[in-house]
Amino acid sequence: MNDCRKVDMLPHTPVADAKERKRALDVTCSFIVQAPAGSGKTELITQRYLSLLARVKQPEEILAITFTRKAVGEMKERIISHLHLAAKGIPPAEQHKLDTYHLACQALQNSQRQGWQLLDHPARLSIQTIDSLCASLGRQIPYFSRLGGQPEITSSPRLLYQKAARKTLTEYHDPSVQCLHIYLSHQYGLAEELLLGMLATREQWLPQIIGCQQHGRFVLERALQGLVQKALDTLQKHISEDEVRELRILGAYASSYLPNNSLPGQIDWDAFPEFTVNHQKCWQGLRELLLTQEGGWRKQITVHQGFPPKSKGGNPEYKTRMLNLLANLSERKDEELLRRSLQLVATVPVKYSDNHWDIIEAIIDVLLKAVANLWITFQSHGCVDYSQMSLSALEALGEEDTPTDLALALDNRISHVLIDEFQDTSISQYLLLRRLTSGWQEGDGRTFFAVGDPMQSIYRFRQAEVGLFLRARQNGIGNLHLNPLRLQVNFRSQASVVKWINSLLSKIFPLTEDTLSGAITYAPSKAFHRTVNDNCVRVNLSQDSDEETQKIINEIIRLQQDDPSGTIAILARNRNHLVDIIRSLKRNDIPFSALEMESLALSPVILDLITITRALTHEGDSIAWLSLLRAPWSGLCLADLQLLRHKENTTLWQALHDNQTLSLLSPDGQARVQRLLLVLKEAELQRGRLPLSRWVEGMWRQLGGPAFCKHSGELDDAATFFTLLTQIETEDFISVQRIEELVHEHYCAVDPEADKSLQLMTIHKAKGLEFDHVLIPGLARQPRSSSAPLLTWLELTQLETPSILLAMKKRGRSQTETPLFDYLWDIEKQCIENESRRLLYVACTRTRKSLGLFATLGVDRNSSSLNAQWKKPPTSSLMNFLWPHIKSTVPLPSNKEAPEATENRIDSPPKLQRVPASWVVPVVAACPLLLPSSAVSDSLSHEPPLYEWAGETARQTGILFHEWIRRLGEQDLLTSINFVNQLTHLQERIYWSTYHHGVASEHRNSIVERVIKGIMNMIEDPDGHWILRSDHHDSHWELALSGSIGDKEPRHIVIDRTFVDETDTRWVIDYKTGYHEGSGLTEFINSEIERYRPQLQLYANAFASLENRLIKKALYFPFHKKMIEVT
């Protein structure tokens, strides 16, 4: 049995890179730090931040930037917690924590000297996401005034892109649009997809396209020339004088045997071709001598290259010398760089052909028109995307040589910039950082500190350009030189894991770095922890996918037995690689948690909601109506369904309203149909009066849909569905296909009660996480194939001025692409391949204790060997990188034939799940979060105050107010600038929900008006607005908790509002919707405090058992705009 005990660190092990870590804290210098997986980069950037806090005059001088809200929260929490520990004055025992503790003490002392009171005002710590920074910069200029105010940011902008694209493509009178349509043979769908893809990434190309609007061809061809010249500079640097001399002699010899019109034959070999673009044709001839058609070094040379045999007058000595030269070039460490540079110089034209330029010019014009139409679409919808926020931030700062007033103001305020995950920076974000620091000079006391790991750059689909990390390391950023540092120590994995990763993965990474193709060299790590188990990495090969899945299940069972408290992660390249595993886990009753694995379209609650939507919008959709009648809330048996369908040319909707047909049903069926008809009648009254999302939600709730959700995650799925419906309500025509398309783009929420000890996710989702054991399935499976796009483009980050290249795919019968398109597409494939290497590195480095690799390979039974052999993995699979280095170490496949596919097992038909005919819709509570028994004190015996003292109208007002504050708060709508503009829609939604709560028709309008009044009071009141803010830490709305005392039944409590404020204080707040008119308000409030004090104390006791921080309790009276702290 393997030893899976806790990973121990080596006794008294000094940190091998301690010198680099210490140097990184020199706040007078700028650095770029490469921090491999597990090297503690988050702790390093925290220490750097604390070091700066100890020296600056104002905390706002320091700007820390990262990429996710989660990372921002973690960084803030780390810094604040270190400051709190320093305030307590109790130094930790661990050395690495002690270093941070001393830095925090110095920062706290400076805070006290300067009077910052950071512990009371931690909001002064400027730590933001890059998107948040862009938004804040955009808000400080009148950039969005054309939209009528500050817009919201949508995270699902595809519909907006589609509208802008369609508006552009229907401008048939425009010559550029006509040219594009003709070029694409009037395939409208292709043109639309082309514009959709380009609009989504416009922050990458729009600044360059606008820059070349007046002299487009000149600017783009200058970029081509710059690219070729860069490659020529590389060749000049790497080709020695001896090699130049030998090439001149051998080239002259070869050209004497070649026709004069051949490329080598046209070269004047007396003078070696100059390293300039003017001699590109000569370099094309040299490439023909040295490289094959596919771009590899020649291994053989013949008369076709100018080296005839001796029998035909050739000199064997020259042929031998040429073969030796080729061998030397192909065996050099920089051979790949040489080969690609020569290929680039010889194949990439420095000018566009006239025909190619005509279509490029047309597409540029169409793209700019699409951007203009997108702006109009943003204006009509009152929202923008993240790309627009990036562009607004760039405009807010101006150009580097012409900064705006805002840029100058920030230049005076910000003295230090820290950025985490720098390898994930996009070109627009890089430009933003350059403009932010454009006025900085070396030695002026201002510093730039970037931390990242180019080996973990795996977000190219989000426009991350790993080449920017390499460029910054080599050339600095703006006027600042960045001192390069590299961390080496891995604090995560045991030594044997680190050794295996170093040994294997170092062989699959490129030997030389290349900013263009994203080639990154491997940086080895040193283990901080000792080896616990030498057999820590297992390679498991299978002959079919079922065998692979079973091996994974067996490994999970083994690990859970050997290491019961250990965490296991199954990390896959694609979600579909986990489908069979999930099915097998369920079949074996192994609990697990899957993050964004299951498509929303497969969720039972979403299937129900799509059924309702289809039925409401199309009375003739028989499949939808049959599903509605068969669903658990109706539960008609098959016999009754058949009776409803017995009349020809009659829809189910008509049959449900035909008394004669209904009389044929069984008594049980009649009762079920009558209950459904009551809901349908109410829904029919709302047809055309409510937006689609509210109409569907209302019917779902009246049918009792929430009662059939198995966990709170399904309620979240339902909320997502209603949000998606809201997004498409403004479309001219809403089809079922459109709804299903949107649903397929989203994923089910995670069940909060799922077992977190076994987690399934994609490798991308696992980045930044760590687990005791990691299993990687499907290593031999291929990703989705990438077909060449219609338009390919490339940002040239390695040039002094970032530029762009564009090329269109040829249309028509000719399959021969332009050399530029071929080159750009080849670079794209190289980028994909290099990122795949990094993806494998990320997956393998998530583990602390053990790593399991799983793949299904074909078997070659016709091999000349006596034993069967594994077939080579597919070229695009991750196993293809590992295979040359592990194939000799894995067991050979068995000689027995793979089992023939068996017939699918025929499962028994599912049983009809339905509620009794007498069932009534319950009021569904939130799914409770279970607390440990120790968290619940005897104060649970206090009964929570009820609404009996109030009238029925007041009780219903209170219920609806609580419900809608929660729903709006969870969607982050209460503090939105556009909230007031949506009051009419909100009023309609609240009105619809009164049906669900049984409000009498004569009281509906007054109660809705009252609820709206309470919500607006809270928004307008400073204390109320503070309570509603969504940026509080650990924020919850109507948090449900459960606990028990001894053997008593569990008791449930629901806390209206709770969060942790800037001072690290937990607030527990209850809303009280009572209203007191006339005098005696103080007495009324005091009586409410006494009434609810035990309840608030109960809430506080629950939190006190879970966390160690100050807890404050308060009541908030929305109809009096008063917040009262209860002590």
Automatic annotation (TrEMBL):
GO BP terms in the entry: recombinational repair
Domain UvrD-like helicase ATP-binding: 14-494
EC number from the UniProt entry: 5.6.2.4
Keywords assigned: ATP-binding, DNA damage, DNA repair, DNA-binding, Exonuclease, Helicase, Hydrolase, Isomerase, Nuclease, Nucleotide-binding
GO cellular component labels: cytosol; DNA helicase complex
Reactions listed under catalytic activity: Couples ATP hydrolysis with the unwinding of duplex DNA by translocating in the 3'-5' direction; ATP + H2O = ADP + phosphate + H(+)
Molecular function in Gene Ontology: 3'-5' DNA helicase activity; ATP binding; DNA binding; exonuclease activity
Residues bound to ATP: 35-42
Signal peptide as annotated in the record: none
Enzyme class (EC, first level): isomerase
Domain UvrD-like helicase C-terminal positions: 506-768
DNA repair found in the keyword field: yes
Pfam family, one: UvrD-helicase
PANTHER family membership: ATP-DEPENDENT DNA HELICASE SRS2, UVRD / RECB / PCRA DNA HELICASE FAMILY MEMBER
Protein name: DNA 3'-5' helicase
Record organism: Desulfurispira natronophila
Organism taxonomic ancestry: Bacteria, Pseudomonadati, Chrysiogenota, Chrysiogenia, Chrysiogenales
